[in-house]
Amino acid sequence: MRSEKTILFVLMGLGVFLFLNLGVYARTCGKSDVFKENIYDPGTLKPRDSVLKVKVGDRAPDFILPAVSGGKVSLSKYLNKMNVVLSFVPAAWTPVCSDQWPGYNIVKYIFDQHDAVLLGITVDNIPTLFAWTNQMVTDGGNLWFSVLSDFWPHGAVADKYGVLRSDGISERATFVIDKKGVIQYIAVHDINKRPPLEEMVRALEKLQN
Amino acid sequence: MKRIFMNQLAAVAIFVLVFNAQPVGANSTPRKGGTLPAIKLDVPKDPVHRSYLGLSGGSLFDISEIKAEVVIIQIFSMYCPLCQREAFRVNELYENIEKDPNTRGKLKLIGIGAGNSQFEVDIFLKTYEVPFPLFSDGDFSIHKSLGEVRTPYFIGVTINDDGSHEIFYSMVGGFENAEEFLQLMLELSGLK
């Protein structure tokens, strides 16, 4: 009886140890000095908290969203013209997201090679996205791709695709849609980690085959 | 009964405190006068880079094995806007080192891509035509051991004849002028 209690307490101690260390793992992401101390660290989140409403082979649900650069962008405008990559990221000013799109900003040529455009989507409003994305480009440049606000109705597009989490942010998810408007690739990533670029590139390469 | 409970509680408290004294990933940033944590890098496949570093073979190497008196390590990421902006200046630093017979061969430059896969490191290398060796730290293990510094981050290390080394520079952020930064490295390292 006594040894059982001791084991129980040791296990509890181990649990506390792991819990305390999760915070450290949660911060395991690139931290560009460009954002200084302006990044809010939410800690480790449940890796995935939604159920997809689309699958590979489905027609991609259309949408129209306001863009940070002005005007509105619809998915259907690319139909029969360009392949489309949708990059949902959870929220502005969070650790992993802030070090994801700046990388995409230097590989426009990869998208061009595959007749593809990139649409970045978050559930943040336009002013927030304006301030956040301005930090991603130094020397007064702009991101080459459209950044769209899925703020109102809140997360409606993320919800259409089944990547809206229960707390109102979206998953970190990538959809590759071909010129016919058909979904060819879906990846709902662990929200706590930045997906390796090569996964998206491989998905684009498959479109050529 | 109460005493047994208190004893067990104390044991748990000690257990947690001891193991959290140095939690995984909570390493401190490199300190001037200190040494680097144990870092093993892949020997470059590119023979030009192998020759630059003075490595003959094997699969892994230690930074203190680099044939140089001083090694400057840049912690970067292809996802980091400042690293992207700094890339041409760091290339200029390399060129300045290589064109001066007083520094060529004595001072070497390497980059470590925090959280960058080899694919991502290669993208950075190709995009910015980086002439010096860049290494992948895809699982952030090196980044963690260096206290999860923000990028870009520069570490200057002197390599001694006996294979030991010492950090003489450790700073977040880039530099505005490659030649001034080189002169600073020469002064602080004692090469000048």
Can you summarize this structure?
Chain A has helices spanning 2-26, 95-98, 101-104, 108-113, 126-134, 156-161, 197-208, and strands at 64-66, 72-74, 83-88, 116-122, 146-149, 172-177, 183-189. Chain A is an alpha/beta fold and 209 residues long. By secondary structure, chain B is of the alpha/beta class.
**Protein chain pair with the most extensive contact, residues per chain:** A-B, 39 and 42 residues
* Backbone shape of chain B: globular
Overall structural domain count of chain A: 1
Main sheet specs of chain B: 5 strands, mixed
State the total count of DSSP E strands of chain A: 7
Q: Average pLDDT value of chain B? A: 89
Count of helical regions of chain A: 7
Oligomer: heterodimer
Q: How far is the first residue's CA from the last residue's CA of chain B?
A: 71 Å
Specify the CATH class of chain A. Answer: Alpha Beta
Assigned CATH architecture of chain A: 3-Layer(aba) Sandwich
Cα-to-Cα separation, first versus last residue of chain A: 65 Å
Class per helix and strand makeup of chain A: alpha/beta
Individual helix count of chain B: 6
Which secondary structure elements does this structure contain, and how are they paired or packed?
The complex is a heterodimer of chains A (209) and B (192).
Chain A: H1 2-26, E1 64-66, E2 72-74, E3 83-88, H2 95-98, H3 101-104, H4 108-113, E4 116-122, H5 126-134, E5 146-149, H6 156-161, E6 172-177, E7 183-189, H7 197-208
Parallel strand pairs in A: 3-4, 4-5
Antiparallel strand pairs in A: 1-2, 3-6, 6-7
Chain B: H1 2-20, E1 40-42, H2 47-53, E2 60-62, E3 70-76, H3 81-99, E4 107-114, H4 118-127, E5 134-137, H5 141-145, E6 153-159, E7 165-172, H6 178-189
Helix pairs in contact in B: 3-6
